[in-house]
Design goal:
Order of helices and strands: HEEHEHHHEEEEHHHHHHH
CATH topology of the largest domain: Beta Polymerase, domain 2
Largest sheet: 7 strands, mixed
CATH superfamily of the largest domain: CorA soluble domain-like
Strand content: 5-15%
Distance between the termini: 98 Å
Number of helices: 12
Low-confidence stretches: 1-13
Strand order of the largest sheet: 2-1-3-7-6-5-4
Shape: rod-shaped
Number of domains: 2
CATH architecture of the largest domain: 2-Layer Sandwich
Structural class: alpha+beta
Length: 338
């Protein structure tokens, strides 16, 4: 079987999630797998524009025609095979290998945080992306392309993906800050809030910082040594994205420390309330000890119980119990006052 019919047969079964071809003015148009294959074969021509191909099956991409026609940079296949999820942007032979993590965050915190990874190969005329789980950022970018938003280069698509991620991080920081403000106001008014919500937010922040912390450094390295085909406006957009990521990570770090202090303050107040409750229970037990002791002694059904045949026996016992109880209460509250 010749190479052309074989590639045409593969294109029918290849899991191309979506594909777009962008004209010289940056407007994208949707294409199918056959059109994408033909466009990749024609990338070396003088025609302007570029393509974006997005796939949802890693093994099929590694064994199919994208790796044969897209001229992927060395190491991209290894990145897909190993499933590396640490955020990175590498410059390899005038191409870029990027690993971007998309965060699906439930702002009501009813479910755990979800992270999906997008592996991207960026060249001068082609952006190829692969995911293992659906990504919100890819769907959002596709809607913008289909709505007619112009993108001048594959790098502009990558920058837009990163800007969307930065916007989500700022949204998470704002939501967490609002929750921390509400907890702080409750503490000032004397209300004791729960620590569970703060603990969940702090765990999410730690997870996101660990996942996204390498991203600003990777972007700054790329800005210092961009490929020759990257435009100046794309470099400026990359710089802005790197600064936004750095700012978001700093805000997350400071918010994490603030939440930790609030948790410590809540724990201190809980310990104080617990100690006060234990003190009250202890005081009540000690105050009631003389009455319980006297009633236990006088309630024994044996001979020789005092005041048994005395007419004023109850009054004597009651007076004695009252005096001992008052003395115990005075001693306890005097110690507490001291």
């Amino acid at each position: 079987m010749s190479a052309q019919p074989q590639l045409a047969q593969e294109s029918d079964s290849l899991p191309l999630n979506r594909g777009y071809v962008f004209s010289a003015n940056g407007v994208g148009h949707k294409i199918n797998a056959n059109e994408a294959r033909e466009r990749l074969m024609d990338l070396d021509s003088e025609a302007a524009g570029f393509v974006w191909l997005h796939f949802h099956n890693v093994p099929a991409v590694l064994s199919g025609w994208p790796t044969q026609l897209a001229k992927l940079p060395p190491g991209f296949g290894d990145t897909l095979r190993e499933g590396l999820r640490s955020t990175r942007v590498e410059h390899v032979r005038q191409n870029l290998i990027a690993v971007v993590n998309d965060v699906d965050y439930d702002f009501e915190r009813k479910g755990p945080i979800k992270v999906a990874t997008l592996w991207i190969s960026v060249g001068a005329r082609c952006l190829l992306s692969v995911h293992s789980l659906p990504l919100r950022s890819v769907d959002q970018l596709s809607c913008e392309v289909e709505a007619g938003v112009a993108f001048s280069s594959p790098m502009a698509l990558l920058v837009r993906l990163m800007q969307g991620q930065a916007d989500l991080l700022f949204g998470i920081v704002r939501s967490a800050t609002q929750t921390a403000n509400e907890v702080e106001i409750a503490l000032r008014t004397g209300t004791l809030p729960k620590r569970s919500s703060l603990g969940g937010i702090r765990r999410d922040l730690v997870h996101l910082r660990r996942l996204l912390a390498p991203e600003p450094a990777a972007l700054f390295r790329l800005i210092n040594r961009p490929p020759r085909w990257v435009r100046d406006e794309d470099v400026q957009s990359l710089r802005q994205s790197a600064e936004e990521f750095s700012l978001a990570l700093r805000d997350m770090a400071s918010l994490q420390e603030r939440i930790q202090l609030l948790e410590e303050e809540i724990a201190a107040k809980v310990a104080e309330h617990t100690n006060r409750s234990v003190l009250i229970l202890t005081a009540v037990t000690v105050i009631a000890l003389p009455i319980n002791l006297i009633s236990g002694l006088l309630g024994m059904n044996i001979g020789g119980v005092p005041f048994r045949h005395t007419e004023n026996g109850f009054s004597i016992v009651f007076l004695l119990s009252t005096v001992l109880t008052s003395l115990s209460a005075w001693l306890i509250f005097r110690k507490k006052h001291d």
